[in-house]
Each structure stands twice: as C-alpha cells, then as structure tokens.
Amino acid sequence: MNKALFLKLSLFLLTCCWGEQELSKKQMLGSLEIIGNHFQLLYSPIAWKEEHHGWSLDVAMADAKREVEQMCPLSLKDYQRAVKKFLQSTHDYHVSVSFLSTESASLPFSLRRAEGRYFISSINRSKLSSSLFPFHVGDELLEFGGRPVEEVVRELYASDFTVSHPDTDIALATYALTSRLGSRGHIVPRGPVMLKIAQKDVLKPRTVQLIWSYDKEMIPAPKMNCTQFWKLFLKKRSLCEESLFNRQYAVDFPLCKDEPTKLGALKGFLPLLGKKLWSAPHNPYYDAYIFEHASGPVGYLRIPHYVHPDEAVDVFESLIDHMNGQTVALVIDQTHNSGGNYFQMIALASMLTDQALIAPLESIKITQKDILVASEWLPDVEAIQNDHDAQEVIGPSFFGIPVTYTMAQFFAEYFRFILKQWDEGKTTTDPVWFYGVNAINPHPRTRYTKPVVMLIDELDFSCADFLPAILQDNARATLFGTCTAGAGGARETFSIRNLFAFDSFTLTITLAKRPNNTTIEDLGVHPDVPYALTPQDLANGYHGYIHALHNVLTDLIPASAEIPQVTAVDKIPEETDRPKGENIHQAFSPKPQRAE
Known about the structure:
With 596 residues, the protein is α+β, with helices and mostly antiparallel strands.
C-alpha cells in the first residue's frame, strides 16, 4: 500500500471514528436534556434547594454538559457517573439513577462506623469460614487494601455518596465499602484485597487476604456503531432484566433476616434489650418481644420498612393489641428503615395513639396525569353515601387502612383541590395534606396508649423520616438516637429510551413541611434524646446504647404504672387473600410511594 493511499485510509477511519464519537456525544447530551426537562416539570423542591444549598438546575446542567463535552475518549462508565454526579448535586436522597448493569462485587462481611473507627458488624459464615477468617463481630478493621479504612471510606464518600446528610452519606459509604454495584454507577473492584484487623483479645493486629466475589458485566459498552449496539442491548436486556430488578430491590429493601446491619432487615442490629419475657410467634413482617425493665415489662417492636403487603397491618394490629395489655411502655425500633408506602405508614401510626395526629403539609408537582386521575375518580367518590359504598368503590382496605365514608370524603376534597389548582394555572400546588389526610385518626379497634420510645438513626429514609416527625410533632413519642436522613417528600420513577444503559431515574415530586413550618427534606428529624454509637458499643454489644435507653424508659414510665402479667398471645394472623374489590389505590400508586 503506497503512502498516499495509507494516509487517505487513515484519515477516513479517523473521520468515521470522530463521527461516531460526536454522534454518541450528541446523544449523551440529548439524554441529559430529557432528564433536565423532567426536573423543570416535576421536581418539587427546586426553590428549597436553591435557598438551602444554593443549587441551580441551569448551573448543574451546564456543568454536566461541560463534563460530557470534555470527555475524550468517550466512556460509558464516565458518562453514567457524570449523570449520577448531576443528580447527586441536588442533595436529595429521592433523586437517583439506576443503570442496566450486571457488574457487582462484594466481600462477605459488613462494617459499622463510630468516631472514625470501623468494626465488623456481620459475617456471612456460609461464604467465609472461621478457619479462613478467624475474626468476629466487634473486631476492628484497621486497613483496607493497605490503606487506613477511614481514608478509603472518605474517598468512596467523596466519589459516590456526597448527597445531603454527612452522617447518612458516610454510613452508606461504609456499607458500600464491601458491596459495589454497577447498577448504581459504582466503580466495581475485582481481585484480592488485604485487610488488617485488630481482635478484641489479641494485642497484635493480624492481616488476611480476601478476594472480591465478582459478577462480570453482561451488558457491554457500545464499541460499535449505534445500530449494532442497540441490537445487542435488546438481546442482553431480556436475559438479565429480572436479576437486575432483584439486585435493585436488594439494595433498597434487603429483607435479609440473617444480616441485621442491612437497610430494611427484618431483625435490627441491636441485641436483646433485656431479659425476654415473651416473644411474638414467627411472622415475616415484624420482630417483636417483651423484655424486663426495672419499671415493668416493656415491649419491643421493629418496623424494618413500609412496603409489606396489606395483611402485615393485621399482624401489626395483633402485636399492638397484645403489647397494650401486657406492657408499661413500647420501644419501636425504626433504625435502618428504608421507607416505603405512605399509607401503610399511616395505618401503623393510627395504632400508636388515642388522639388524632396532625400530618405534614406538602406542595405537590402536578401534570395532566394528575388531572386525569382526579377527573376520573371524583364522580365515583362523590357518589359515596356511606361506609358500604366506600368499600365497594375503594375496597375494604386502603393499604391496610380500614375504608370508611369519611376517608372517601377526604379523597373527594383532595381531588377537587387538585382540579382547582390546575384551573388556577398552578403546576406546583399550595401546601396540602397528602390525599387529603390532614390528621391520622386513631385506629377503630386497636390503640397503644402508654409511653412510646422510637429508635431512629441516620439510615432512616422517607416514610421513616415522616413517622418520627409526626410522632414528635404530636408529642406522642420520645425519639432516641441520631438524626434521620432527611428524604422529605414523595418520589416518582421515570424511564427514557436511551443507548447508555439508563434503567430509570427518580425525582422528588412533593415537598413536606411540618406544623412549625420547617422542612423534612435535608434537615431530617432530630431526636429528643440524642445518642451516637460509640466504638465501645460496636465492640461490646451496644451496652452503652441499651443502658441509655433503659434510663429514658425509667424517666417515661410513671411510678404509679400498673404492672401487668405477661402472657402468651393467642395467635398471629396468617397471610390471607383479602377481598380487594375495585382497588382505587391501584390508580393512585404512582403518587403515594415513598421509598429509599
């Protein structure tokens, strides 16, 4: 081949390559524009974020576009991380993105942090035998990959978890230290890693080498032209869509009974709070028992999240009914609660009070979709004349809440409000109670009437922000622990067709304000009795935490409290096929969901 022909061919290939790069870059910027348009239309806290953080959609979008423009060479992972960075700039836990990726890596143990030190909180012995890993829960991890653990976690925090609440972000980075997901845009490691660990009863730290359990990427980056990539993408998607969904669900709501340090786990990380006097019959929804306290028997009830099926509310009712007659106080463990459905949270809250509880007001982003729902359902709801009619139209229960004529009237008022706001040209409503529920009425049958202590922490999100806020605002419970994460609104999930492995992204569509006019978003809910975990707690079974909690209970339980005799409960309701009727809540499902 002569030099002239070689140069012409090289120039042609370079031009083709440059053309593909520019085409991909243009498509990347186009996808960013679509996400930005969704923000402009539906993101409720825009003004609050500007006031509180100085955040600007235009500035954040311009920064993201600039980063894409400067990419050379183009990288799918770099683009995904640029999108993630743009979304995280909102300082909002409800704003996130999920990618179509099967790549992941994990180590079979978890950590918790206290005062800049890191302690083993769980070990998967089915994957990590004591002979290979002769360490225990409570031992301290000093180095990770030859570097101080705090340095590695801070680096991970800066690159992937700088969102809003520093304590929450560091806790999430600590969890991710041993668990990375390509679907979350993480840089996924592989190969061996050296650990240095200090055992509680051994003077000299020991080193051990583990290897990441690695799942490879089944959905490759576009290495060919867009048409070829799209065909391959469609083929791969059908093979891995289900597993991707399961991983996403495991991250958000990991109902892992044997891993109590995980978000949404059935059993919490705390050991028994005292000598066990009674234990609830097994159920898949709530861990519950009664323990001995100096002032009398105290109940413990863990709420891991708010995405159980409706029949779980029956189980909760049975437990509360038993606790009310058998205890002098109740401890509700809501730590590491990943959130869930707002109305399920209301159903549980109704059983913790004998007085109506005022709920936060919310400003809601509305579109024609909301107007369509309101227009279609308002005539049906307005026609309801009694409880029987309400149950015929709405169903016998609404996410576990007994359906009544009064509930139907609240819904009708809410629909009329939405239509009126739209007629007035508003796409962000005036503050309103979510679906008209301005007060949570006591449950018609079951109400806990004695002192309540709720355990909260920095890994409580969304509904797990709202319930502590409601109980605190109505002086119904004493909050113990650390400030919640501050995910203060409802979220909605969106998908766009693209070539860059976006599965979906979420936006906050409401902004809640408490009766004192403070937001939950960013600020979280502060405890009445602050208690931050100490290294001694993590190393020695949370003795300091439990001692402080017992002191709080002593102060709350009246000296004159009648001491009940603890007896067994008759039966926990089993799962049943509830009569669903025409379930109006299926039509509402995009709005009431609060999760992550």
